[in-house]
Design goal:
- With 64 residues, this protein is an all-alpha fold.
- 38% of the residues lie in helices and 0% in strands.
- It contains 3 helices and no strands.
- The longest helix has 15 residues.
């Protein structure tokens, strides 16, 4: 069994090596609020000329 002095020495060594724990971070520092962007229908519109860029297909890569 370790003596009380040995435990205190270990605690002092730990504090010297690692310092102290950082301060707690508040909830308000963890949350970021952003305004909602309205739905843009052109963002999801189908463009047949550019549709080849939106998927990966082995047949298309091989030109089949």
């Amino acid at each position: 069994m370790e003596s009380r002095q040995g435990t205190d020495d270990a605690a002092v060594a730990r504090r010297a090596r690692y310092g102290r724990l950082p301060d707690r971070v508040g909830h308000d520092e963890l949350v970021e609020e952003k305004r909602a962007v309205p739905n843009d229908p052109t963002r999801y519109a189908h463009d047949p000329e550019a549709s080849w860029r939106s998927f990966a297909c082995l047949a298309a890569d091989l030109g089949l």
